[in-house]
């Protein structure tokens, strides 16, 4: 077996190099995985382009290997690994904790102060390579019913799932979801599955809204370039407001608007990167509306739930993939993230291994 592998190494913004590098040497508690599918996230592009605030702050260091949405097959296991064997189909967390601190021992590894993110912040080398080394505690079996496409999309599904859980949605409630990207579409679809009486999804790109329609993401699609969200809610809800709101667009204007369009006692959850400060937050509206404003980041303990949902056939996140590239054309895929943004939903990278 070759001791080297192909990897796409990022040495600085826009400096992506296809390389032959040493294959990861696994520790006793780690699993060597062969990557079969990887998806390209907006965060990958923002690191590649240098636009991400964490690049500017130094939290993203170079050289590194991008890629955190992936699925694959176990190639080899360390001597202490118990639950995984060569040939098993797998996915992983995208945040790797120390496993020893109080937060980790309390079952909250996402709050660990030493977390290294797969292919992003304080990077653990990511999935744009032929092989990955993953700690066993951060690895999950991919059920036979779940395709490699669906498996690679579990990571964004976990974010959407955490958002829906975070707003504590009750059956029969109305939900406003801002942002017709993958997480927004997945979150809207999960709200329908969870029993929302009506789900509203906003977006600005006709092609993406059409993709959301085909995905059956929401009951009502709102093209914000053509109509006001407030007007649509006024037509479809008794008080012109949603009971709960998920803000997935990354727009501070929409986050502020969400507070105005969420009814008394409701919850607004923010799931996106905003990379800015808000100096005009309507505090009185928050207080006297008895609203809850929640930030939803990388939350652990959701992969099994999401895998079960996909295995049951109730949701297929891989259906959002509308562009494919061979591994060798990763740079083109990253460039196309911006060039084809009007209709791009999710790009997938296929590995010939």
Describe the structure.
- The protein is an alpha/beta fold and 353 residues long.
- It folds into 2 domains: 174 residues, Medium-chain alcohol dehydrogenases, catalytic domain (Quinone Oxidoreductase, Chain A, domain 1, Alpha-Beta Complex), CATH 3.90.180.10; 138 residues, NAD(P)-binding Rossmann-like Domain (Rossmann fold, 3-Layer(aba) Sandwich).
- The protein is built from 12 helices and 18 strands.
- Strands 3, 5, 6, 9, 10, 17 and 18 form a 7-stranded mixed β-sheet that branches.
- Strand 1 and strand 2 form a beta hairpin.
- Helix 1 crosses helix 12 and helix 5 crosses helix 6.
- It starts with a strand and ends with a strand.
- The mean pLDDT is 95.
- Top CATH class of the largest domain: Alpha Beta
Low-pLDDT segments, ≥5 res: none
CATH superfamily of the largest domain: Medium-chain alcohol dehydrogenases, catalytic domain
Count of strand segments? 18
Which bin fits the share of residues in helices? 25-40%
Average pLDDT: 95
Count of discrete domains: 2
Largest sheet: 7 strands, mixed
Name of the CATH architecture of the largest domain:
Alpha-Beta Complex
CATH topology title of the largest domain: Quinone Oxidoreductase, Chain A, domain 1
Distance between the termini: 13 Å
Content-based structural category:
alpha/beta
- Radius of gyration, whole Å: 20 Å
* H/I helix tally: 12
């Amino acid at each position: 077996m070759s001791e080297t592998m192909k990897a796409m190494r990022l040495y600085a913004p826009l400096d992506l190099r296809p390389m032959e590098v040493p294959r990861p040497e696994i520790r006793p508690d780690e699993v060597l995985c062969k990557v079969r599918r990887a998806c390209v996230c907006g965060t990958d592009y923002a690191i590649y382009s240098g636009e991400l605030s964490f690049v500017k702050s130094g939290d993203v260091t170079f050289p590194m290997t991008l890629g955190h949405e992936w699925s694959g097959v176990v190639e080899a296991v360390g001597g202490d690994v118990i639950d995984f064997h060569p040939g098993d189909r797998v996915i992983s967390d995208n945040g790797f904790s120390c496993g020893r601190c109080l937060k980790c021992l309390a079952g909250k590894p996402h709050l660990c102060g030493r977390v290294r993110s797969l292919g992003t912040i304080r990077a653990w080398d990511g999935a744009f390579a032929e092989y990955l080394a993953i700690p066993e505690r951060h690895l999950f079996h991919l059920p036979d019913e779940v395709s490699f496409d669906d498996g690679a999309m579990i990571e964004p599904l976990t974010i959407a799932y955490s958002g829906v859980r975070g707003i504590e949605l009750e059956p029969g409630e109305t939900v406003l979801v801002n942002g017709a990207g993958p997480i927004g579409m997945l979150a809207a679809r999960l709200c329908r599955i969870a029993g929302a009486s009506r789900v509203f999804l906003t977006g600005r790109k006709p092609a993406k809204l059409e993709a959301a329609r085909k995905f059956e993401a929401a009951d009502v699609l709102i093209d914000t370039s053509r109509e006001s969200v407030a007007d649509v809610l006024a037509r479809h809800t008794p008080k012109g407001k949603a009971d709960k709101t998920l803000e997935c667009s990354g727009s501070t204007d929409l986050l502020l608007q969400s507070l105005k369009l969420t009814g008394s006692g409701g919850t607004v959850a923010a799931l996106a990167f905003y990379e800015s400060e808000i100096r005009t937050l309507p505090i009185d509206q928050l207080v006297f509306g008895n609203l809850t404003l929640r930030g939803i980041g990388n939350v652990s303990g959701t992969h099994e739930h999401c895998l079960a949902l996909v295995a049951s056939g109730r949701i297929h996140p891989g259906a959002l993939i509308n562009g494919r590239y061979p591994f060798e054309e990763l740079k083109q895929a990253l460039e196309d993230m911006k060039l084809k943004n009007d209709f791009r939903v999710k790009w997938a990278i296929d590995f010939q291994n």
